[in-house]
Amino acid sequence: MERTLATLFQTGYEGSKLVFRGSAMVTGCPYTFELRYDAAMSSLNCYTLHIHGNWGKTKADYHEHFRKASQSWYDFWTKPFKKAHAPEEGIGLEERYRAIAEQAIRSEAHLSDVASVQREIVAAMQSGAHFSTAHKEGGTYIRWRDGCFIRADYGESNDTETFRDDASFLAFLRKFYDGETSKNIYPNKAPDYDAWKLILRLMDR
Q1: How many CB atoms lie within 10 A of CB 6?
Q2: Are 16 and 78 found together in one domain?
Q3: Which site among 43, 107, 164, 202 is 20 to 30 Å from 193 CA-CA?
Q4: Which of 106, 138, 165 is the last residue of a domain?
Q5: Could you give the CA distance from residue 201 to residue 205 in angstroms, rounded to a whole number?
Q6: In this predicted model, what pLDDT tens digit does every residue of 143-155 receive, in sequence order?
C-alpha cells in the first residue's frame, strides 16, 4: 500500500490490535487509509482495510466526478488482495498474533535516519535488488552490476549511466524519484527521510 500510494503509514496499537494509518491526496481528492491486523490463524493472517474519500470541501461541480472515480481507485488499490469474511471476535492464535505484530513493529527500527535507509538500499542492491520503471515510450532499469551501479533506459531512449561510488548514485536516485515520492502531496515535497523510505518501498527485491 505504501508503494502504491507513495505515502508512509503510521503504525501503532489500538487496544490489542495493530493498526496502520495513512493519507494521500489522489487527483485532488483526500483519502485516508486504515489497515487493521485482525487475527493470526495457523496458516494465514486476516486484515480489514478501510478507505475513506472526502470530496465535501471541493466544488459541488466536481462531486459526481470524484464519486465515480473513487470506485475505480478502490478497485485498483484492493486488486492484489483476496476478499474474506471478517473473523469472529476472539478467533485466532493470540501468541502468534503478538509475535507477528511485534516483529512488524521491530522490522525497521534500525532505519532511524536517512543514512540508515540509504545503507539498506545499497546493501540490498548489491545483493540483487533493483529498481525499474515503465511507460508507453519505454522505461528504466537501475541495478548493481560488475562492481558499480547502472542506470539503463530502454525503448525511446537507450542511454546508460554508470555510478562507481555510493554518494553519486544516491544523489541520482533521490533526484530520479523526486516526483514519484511527492506525487500525492503536490505541490509540497516529501521530507528527505520520508522520500528515502518511499524509495526503499519502490525497490524490487
Answers
A1: 22
A2: yes
A3: 164
A4: 106
A5: 10
A6: 999 999 999 999 9
